[in-house]
Design a protein that fits this description.
Blueprint (H helix, E strand, L loop, with lengths): L2 H11 L2 H23 L7 H22 L4 H17 L1
Length: 89
Amino acid sequence: MSKTGTNLEQLRDQPDHELRQALARTRDDLFRLHLAQHTNQVTSSAALTEKRREIARILTILRARELGSETQGQKAQNKAQNRAKKAKS
């Protein structure tokens, strides 16, 4: 599995309060990267893109939970169903 896929699974397994803390940390990191970029201390702009995408992932997960389309319990149930389908095959 890709690095992003693993990170996404880890994010989905976290409770809401931890996601909000991760969101605050990531936004702070992005702010610091912007400052470093303006002072010519950042050698790669890819880090900025990665932080923005991570923020988007976290916000998407939080919004899905808010709308009720994804819950932690539902996630565990889906994993169990997928395992059962694979076992039947």
